[in-house]
């Protein structure tokens, strides 16, 4: 062989991806901070807050499904349990808000740990059906136990009962900044977990559980941690949902909502945390733009999801990789190095 071959696409790819990620995060941060000043209609601001709440729940679900490989169709259960626990403790029992929030998150985490323990016995479709069944049971309970949950009429949190934060009434715009802060903190925490030893054990269990066990990884502990993180993230979303809407009804925590969370993770990319946020915004906001074609927007949304998955098979979270491949030069450049390489005789 004469000369040396260098591939510039391999050098340009990481730079393009890094620039894209930095620009996207910077633009997103500026947009999120400035949204309350630009959006004057509460309805549209509440939709954006709802998209961020879905992002938090999708981030947690991605740890169980995308990172650890444990199929979970009951994410709405954890969000609903924490939301109803907070509402019942504060409105029915008159408990203080901060201890009630902590209790709601602990309850969600305990249920998630139970799911992780159960995943050691059940795998694949059996685990999926079991988590779906628990979500259906929760929906039936909150729909029929009127004395506790209000039934289909739900639980309303009066404005007078909403807590104050440093003397400031927690209205919609204050909740917006709380949700933005929670999303950023949980996203950074998720990145730290993903890159840590715990995250590596999650991925090892996902790739091959038997080999992970032979390598000394406690597979049961990894599953329990993954499902606990998943449930706590959903619990945070449920608690913030109460502050955002000040009303709870069973229709918000159906099994269909669990499938929506799974669609967010799938569209964004399994195992990709940025993709979870992008997928959540896409699934939440696209129906709002399609309300002008009522009766057909479900079909259009389904076709849009299929098109996204056809164009970006790995998900929206891998968009920087696609852009790097498009912008990088495909041809390898051959340079003369002044050396002759004579093949050795056999």
The count of helical stretches stands at 14
- Note the beta-strand portion: 5-15%
| Strand arrangement across the biggest beta sheet | 1-6
Terminal Cα span: 17 Å
Poorly predicted segments? 1-12, 331-338
Short recap of the structure:
With 346 residues, the protein is mainly alpha-helical. 71% of the residues lie in helices and 6% in strands.
Description:
This protein has a domain at 41-253. Helix content is 71%, strand content 6%. It is built from 14 helices and 6 strands. The protein has helices at 8-38, 42-67, 75-92, 97-119, 125-144, 146-149, 172-195, 197-207, 209-214, 219-245, 255-268, 273-289, 297-311, 319-327, and strands spanning 2-6, 155-156, 164-165, 168-169, 247-248, 333-340. The strands form 3 sheets. The protein has a two-stranded antiparallel sheet. A two-stranded antiparallel ribbon has the order 2-5. Strands 3-4 form a two-stranded antiparallel ribbon. A hairpin with a 2-residue loop joins strand 3 (164-165) and strand 4 (168-169). Helix 2 (42-67) crosses helix 11 (255-268) and helix 3 (75-92) runs parallel beside helix 5 (125-144). It is globular and about 55 Å long. The model is unreliable at 1-12 and 331-338 (pLDDT under 50).
């Amino acid at each position: 062989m004469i000369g040396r071959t260098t591939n510039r696409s391999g050098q340009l790819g990481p730079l393009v991806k890094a620039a894209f990620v930095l620009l996207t995060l910077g633009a997103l941060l500026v947009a999120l901070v400035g949204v309350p000043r630009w959006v004057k209609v509460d309805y549209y601001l509440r939709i954006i807050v709802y998209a961020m709440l879905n992002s938090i729940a999708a981030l947690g679900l991605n740890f169980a499904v995308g990172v650890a490989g444990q199929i979970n169709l009951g994410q709405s259960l954890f969000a609903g349990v924490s939301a109803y626990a907070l509402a019942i403790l504060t409105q029915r029992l008159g408990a203080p808000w901060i201890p009630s929030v902590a209790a709601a998150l602990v309850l969600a985490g305990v249920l998630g740990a139970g799911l992780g323990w159960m995943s050691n016995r059940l795998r694949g479709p059996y685990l999926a059906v079991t988590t779906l069944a628990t979500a259906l049971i929760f929906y039936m309970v909150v729909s029929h136990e009127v004395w506790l949950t209000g039934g289909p009429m739900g639980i309303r949190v009066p404005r007078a009962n909403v807590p104050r934060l440093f003397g400031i009434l927690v209205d919609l715009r204050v909740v917006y900044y709380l949700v933005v802060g929670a999303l950023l903190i949980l996203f950074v925490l998720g990145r730290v977990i993903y890159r840590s030893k715990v995250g590596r054990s999650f991925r090892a269990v996902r790739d091959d559980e038997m080999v992970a066990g032979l390598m000394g990884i406690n597979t049961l502990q990894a599953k329990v941690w993954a499902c606990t993180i998943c449930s706590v993230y959903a619990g945070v979303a449920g608690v913030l949902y109460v502050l955002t809407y000040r009303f709870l009804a069973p229709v918000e925590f159906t099994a269909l909502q669990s499938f929506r969370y799974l669609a967010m993770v799938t569209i964004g990319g399994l195992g990709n945390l940025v993709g979870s946020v992008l997928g959540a915004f896409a699934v939440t906001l696209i129906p709002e733009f399609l309300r002008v074609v009522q009766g057909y927007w479900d079909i259009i949304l389904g076709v849009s999801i299929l098109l996204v998955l056809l164009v970006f098979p790995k998900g929206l979270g891998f968009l920087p990789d696609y852009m790097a491949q498009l912008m990088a030069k495909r041809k390898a450049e051959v340079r003369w190095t002044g050396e002759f390489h004579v093949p050795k005789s056999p």
